[in-house]
C-alpha cells in the first residue's frame, strides 16, 4: 500500500487498514471494507427518479474532518439502517435524502455521535454483526422519501439462494469517472457454502452472499451500508458489508449482513419491525 494512500486517510481509516492487513497476515483472506469517497456500483445502471426512495447517502465526520461516505436505508421516519464499520471514529453524520443526485439532496438531517448506534457485538476482524442504526429528526414521506420494508421473522428460515436482489449506491463507475446519478445493479444470492471458498474463511448464517457474475457487476467502496432488496418485493434482506481484498471487479462474491438475523436488535433499539 503506497505512502500516498495512507497520507490521504484519517487516523481511523489507517487503523482499519492496519487491522485488516494484520488479520490477513495471520489468518485468512481479508475482506475489503466498502467505504470511502471513491465508492461505486461497478458496471451498474442509472436509477430512475424515485426508483429507490428509501436510499440515503451518509457523509460521516470526525470533528470537522471528513470520515467517509456510505449508503443507508430509511426504516422509519426517524431511523436509518447502515453498516457498523461505516460509523467507526465518527462524531456526526449528514444524512442526504430525497434525490438520486448525490450532491443535491432535497432533504438533509444531521445526527450526532449519541444517535449513531452500532450493534454492540460488532467486531472489525471478520466484520461480525456489521450493522448500525442512526436516529434522525422526523422526516415526511413523499414520492422520493419512503421507508423500506424489513423482512419478517418467518424469512429467517429461508436462505434466499437463487433470489434476485437489487443494490444501489453512488460513486465512480468501472471506467473511473464519477456519475451524477444513483447507480444500481441486480445480483443473485448464492449459498454461504459456495461463498466461503472465495474468502478462505467461514461465512456464518448472519451473512448473505451474492454473485458478482465474475466481477462483472458488484458493490464497491462507498456502497457500504446500502440496502440489498429482493427484486420481487423490495423487502430489505441485506446491508452491504465487504468484498474481496483483490478489488471490486475481482471474480468473488459480495457479502452483506443478513437483516433477518437482527430483527430483534433492530426492534429493541428503534422500535421498528417489518
Can you put this structure into words, describing what you see?
The protein has 274 residues and is of the alpha+beta class. It has a domain at 153-261: Thrombin, subunit H (Beta Barrel), CATH 2.40.10. The chain is 14% helix and 32% strand. The protein has helices at 3-8, 11-26, 192-199, 263-270, and strands at residues 31-33, 41-42, 45-46, 55-62, 65-76, 79-82, 92-97, 107-112, 116-118, 132-135, 164-169, 183-190, 207-211, 218-219, 227-230, 236-244, 254-258. The strands form 3 sheets. The protein has a 7-stranded antiparallel β-sheet, covered by helices on one side. Strands 11-12-13-17-16-15 form a 6-stranded antiparallel barrel. The chain has a two-stranded antiparallel sheet with strand order 2-14. Strand 15 and strand 16 form a beta hairpin. The termini are far apart. Residues 1-27 form the signal peptide.
List keywords for this structure.
serine protease, 4 helices, single chain, Thrombin, subunit H, disordered N terminus, globular, 17 strands, 274 residues, alpha+beta, protease, signal, Peptidase_S1_PA_chymotrypsin, seven-stranded antiparallel sheet, Serine proteases 1/2
Summarize the helices and strands and which ones pair or pack.
Blueprint: H1 3-8, H2 11-26, E1 31-33, E2 41-42, E3 45-46, E4 55-62, E5 65-76, E6 79-82, E7 92-97, E8 107-112, E9 116-118, E10 132-135, E11 164-169, E12 183-190, H3 192-199, E13 207-211, E14 218-219, E15 227-230, E16 236-244, E17 254-258, H4 263-270
Antiparallel strand pairs: 1-16, 2-14, 3-12, 4-5, 4-7, 5-6, 6-10, 7-8, 9-10, 11-12, 11-15, 12-13, 13-17, 15-16, 16-17
